[in-house]
């Protein structure tokens, strides 16, 4: 077992070789990984069974077991994901701009690899491959630390990926899995200054909080989502109902599912019964403010202050009647997590005000919050969804995994 | 005295009002600040005298006293700086791109204010105004914490700036000075999650290290600079000497001054005596590797391992003969701080390899490292020079103080 410092040294030593690979070499590596994973499906499934058996012994809940479980189909999907990353344009080397200064210096801004990227994630074996593939295509070495419940699966996948790279003559230390899954190794990883250029936590609120609190390396905070749908006074109410149902129910477990409904008082009497009816087939529990309770009565439950800040990730939603768009925006900016927010409106002024003033990574007019996703935005695969304001905001594709440098061409200029 | 949490709440409450200001309002505020500072020059000088007297009592060295000292001319320069920031283009609202997706969604990426920006800096009263002006133009509220030795000056400047904004009907809580200058308040500021969107330390290595180690809010690390000039085998040696002298001596106290000279062995015998002669008028002390010593003899001092990592900020430079450009690049990537690096060469291949492989914010071919500076790059005033890879790298002008958000216009799209 390589300890964390051995891995950190290996990744740091590999980063310049990875950064120098041209697009063809990187794509060949990604296809080799896909081929190798497919060819070793049985081996991966055997390793995965060890994790599942241990999970059942430790009484993991069925949701976690499901996320942990690989099948031949899922492995094929993971391999196909590598090929999709290979098909994405290479972000490295793009010159974002170049200008000639009055003194003749040509100053250009070039997209370059990040260096070494750390990812801390939960017990999802697919992330081991997805994250490695994205980092590799972005020209960076990676250090992956997955949840211990998926250790055997991740170890097998990581070994196969490293072997696939080595077989192509590519640097296998581009991909590194932390094999020590103790809390100490996670804490040590968060303080790998001088080795890690960025650390990205991917998982639930607790994991992200731990990384933000403890890391001394630069972090990109990815997202929990307390997302709102605001139905404006001028909304097309049928559209609002369709968007609400989609945002709440299309997939309840994701960070861009709606968790709260705000309704302008002028349309509350008309819309709230429509909303209740539209959400009924999915048995959504409504947590309503007093005015919502007046309209919908005892068929719903009263909202507490806590409800407005909750990410249910379940068939539940908080509901509040507001007096104005100003109140809606203030409420959202108070309770949201900076993820995805939606207004349904036919008013030009309301659409302008909402998109200007709501503070979030993605602000929607007349569309479901469920579109905040790398593929839907046209970026291809994503490493996560940033809810911070630095570096990257919203879905993070390959470009978010890169850095920049200024390259300056002169002919002897001095100051 | 407002305590830190009072200030944090005030800044957070002000940020949406600041974000909404149009360019004309922001520029009017900046000119009002300039006018107010000029009109109160005597008051500022009186406050400054308190700091200087205290500094002398506490035996501050003359360099620090000089940085602390304001004069009528310096105040006029600070006011002029505000007007220059007013003259810069407003970065806010720019749509970086907008694309229509196959489903008709129009997804655009818009530049938006950061929110609340924290700056921790040393005893330089001018930074109080420079930083406030840049943050204000970038549409963000700021929380400033300067060195305690400049407290009276900074307090006076901050009060005047706040008054100037209030007199124009602009939110005075856009600008906030931390009046508690204890170490505890600095540590507390580094952990203002939920209030500070970014914290930028501006000052020496110790300050920056303390912020990187202790902050739980997102940080942009600004730079110490161990910058190299590499004279390639193919270099125009006269040009190399001019660049070396400029990079080392034009201003020794700045982060983009050269601290190390690397010379290809093929030109070492020819160039090293030229370099020594060129640096002689400034009495630069050369710390040479054994091969440099062989050529220049006892007229210079031997370099220790420590010398290669030192940011002298003085008339001193380390000198090393290398066997190849590969060795030069490896040496630079080992010892540099990711700031500014220069190759002097007439070789196409060498220029490509150096700019591709050197890992730094600014990589120069045939030009002095002294150009890494917001004004020289055409950005106008800068808040600092980032040496990290996340968010901003190199000189940070107004754009580096902004964030982005996706704004999505639909007509009822659901997934």
UniProtKB/TrEMBL annotation, chains A, B:
Signal peptide residues on this chain, from the entry's feature table: none
Location in the cell: Cytoplasm
InterPro entries from the UniProt entry: Ald_DH/histidinol_DH (IPR016161), Ald_DH_C (IPR016163), Ald_DH_N (IPR016162), Aldehyde_DH_dom (IPR015590), G-glutamylP_reductase_CS (IPR020593), Glu-5-SA_DH (IPR012134), GPR_dom (IPR000965)
SUPFAM superfamilies to which the protein is assigned, alphabetical: ALDH-like (SSF53720)
Pathway annotation: Amino-acid biosynthesis; L-proline biosynthesis; L-glutamate 5-semialdehyde from L-glutamate: step 2/2
Domain of life from the UniProt record: Bacteria
Identification of the protein by name: Gamma-glutamyl phosphate reductase
Organism: Butyricicoccus pullicaecorum 1.2
């Amino acid at each position: 077992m390589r300890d964390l410092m051995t891995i950190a040294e290996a990744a740091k030593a590999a980063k310049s070789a990875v950064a120098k690979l041209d697009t063809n070499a990187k794509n060949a590596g990604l296809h080799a990984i896909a081929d190798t994973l497919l060819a070793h499906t049985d081996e991966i499934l055997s390793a995965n069974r060890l994790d599942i058996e241990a999970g059942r012994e430790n009484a993991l809940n069925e949701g976690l077991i499901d996320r942990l479980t690989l099948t031949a189909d899922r492995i094929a999907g993971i391999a196909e994901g590598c090929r999709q990353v290979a098909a994405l344009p290479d972000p490295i080397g793009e010159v974002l701009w170049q200008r000639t200064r009055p003194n003749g210096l040509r100053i250009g801004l070039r997209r370059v690899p990040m260096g070494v990227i750390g990812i801390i994630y939960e017990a999802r074996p697919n992330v081991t491959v997805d994250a490695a593939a994205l980092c590799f295509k972005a020209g960076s070495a990676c250090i992956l630390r997955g949840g211990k419940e998926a250790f055997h699966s991740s170890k097998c996948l990581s070994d196969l990926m490293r072997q696939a790279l080595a077989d192509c003559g590519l640097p296998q230390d581009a991909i590194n899995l932390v094999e020590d899954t103790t809390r100490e190794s996670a804490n040590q990883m968060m303080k790998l200054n001088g080795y890690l250029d960025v650390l990205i936590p991917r998982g639930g609120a607790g994991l992200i909080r731990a990384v933000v609190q403890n890391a001394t390396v630069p972090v990109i905070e990815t997202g929990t989502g307390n997302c709102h749908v605001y139905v404006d006074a001028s909304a097309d109410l049928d559209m609002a109902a369709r968007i609400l149902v989609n945002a709440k129910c299309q997939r309840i477990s994701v960070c861009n599912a709606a968790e709260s409904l705000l309704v302008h008082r002028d349309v509350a009497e008309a819309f709230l019964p429509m909303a209740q009816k539209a959400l009924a087939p999915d048995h959504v529990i409504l947590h309503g403010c007093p005015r919502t309770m007046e309209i919908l009565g005892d068929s719903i439950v009263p909202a507490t202050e806590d409800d407005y800040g909750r990410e249910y990730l379940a068939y539940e939603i908080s509901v509040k009647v507001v007096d104005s768009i100003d109140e809606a925006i203030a409420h959202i900016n108070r309770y949201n997590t900076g993820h995805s927010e939606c207004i349904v409106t036919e008013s030009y002024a309301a659409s302008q005000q909402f998109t200007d003033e709501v503070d979030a990574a993605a602000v929607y007019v007349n569309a479901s919050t469920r579109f905040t996703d790398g593929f839907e935005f046209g970026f291809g695969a994503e490493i996560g969804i940033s809810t911070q304001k630095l570096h990257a905001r919203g879905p993070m594709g390959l470009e978010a995994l890169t850095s920049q440098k200024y390259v300056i061409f002169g002919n002897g200029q001095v100051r």
